[in-house]
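Entry for magnesium ion complex. Fields follow.
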Amino acid sequence: MNDMILLKQGEIVLKGQNRRTFEARLIRNVKNRLKPFGDFRIYAVQSTVYVEPQGDCDMDGALEAAKTIFGIASISRAAACEKDRDAICEMAIKYLGPAIKSAASFKVESKRSDKSFPMTSIQLSQYVGGLLAEAFPETPVNVREPDFTVNLEVRDYAAYVHGPVIEGAGGMPVGANGKVVSLLSGGIDSPVSTYMIAKRGVSVIPVHFFSFPYTSEQAKQKVIDLAGILTDWCGPLRVEVVPFTHIQEEIRRCCPEEYFTVIMRRFMMRIAARIAADNGCKALVTGENLGQVASQTLEAMAVTEECAGLPVLRPVIALDKKEIVELARRIGTFETSILPYEDCCTVFTPRHPRTRPRLDEVREAEANMDVDGLVNEAVLGTERVEA
Ligand code: ATP
Ligand code: MG
């Protein structure tokens, strides 16, 4: 029945000059995301992406998947027909009849981007509404607060009939705004911050610091699993797993205990910055959240990022824990994040971490270590795992 999916573009339409590149990226992302659900013809006209199945496709699966594509504001599953008022009416009866029948009330709403169509939107709504009311006399018309809305769109190549409009993922197409390295722990916050930055059209390389045997294989697998969940939103991800044990042991051996955490975090920044440089990434992303723990005070964050050499973005910096948890649930990472495997941050945790570290003291402590050698060793030992 010419069943298809209409995806309305979001903010991308504001983009003027860059619009074409944005749109090309969006189409590429839609094609990749929907590939597992069958063979589709996918193209864009007038701020809308058309998804037309070629033969047998899993339309329910494709519809679900479409909800995770950034750059899409709204989604409708529709049926296409000829641009003729009676063909439109017939399609509405055939495609939406059961829904109209079981609704408490309905109305018809029309849009027309093809201005050569011989009726105005209002005329078309009235015409089709009248015929539907005859066809389904048991369902009253209610134009104020309808239980069900029959949407009609007269566009360039065809007319489309659809029911409810579903909210899309919003944001911008992943890859349209460059690339970042995201520091991904097994916690609740960093998967959410990764999702949030991807939503702004950024593609992500996740980096995980792994302290075997202080942290277990399961802890590493948990992070790979989290990245796997995030691929729905971010596209394919390859996790850079950085061996971190030697660095942590050296910190313990050479530095005052109260500085363990901040110095460890500075190593994370240096290594992440190296991976960023090697992969053309323009910023680092963390799940830091102001005031949540000792290493997330303004002073500690300043000392931490001082050695990064590129912007450090913290999408969840100002969210409450409750808000982060809500997002984690919504994007599907929460249940995995709360599995009880330890993170390298909980290895050698100081009893009294400095909440206001001093940069001069930190540098003095670091002078006892071969910082460059340790960073090189970690970068060289990095393992790449497809999520
Ligand atoms: P999360 O829930 O994301 O783990 P958190 O509140 O537990 O955050 P920390 O453990 O202090 O906070 O870590 C702050 C940020 O540092 C994390 O959000 C993450 O971006 C990064 N980070 C921490 N541990 C690791 C790790 N093992 N590998 C990669 N990044 C990490
Ligand atoms: Mg953590």
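NOTE: The longest strand covers residues 72-81.
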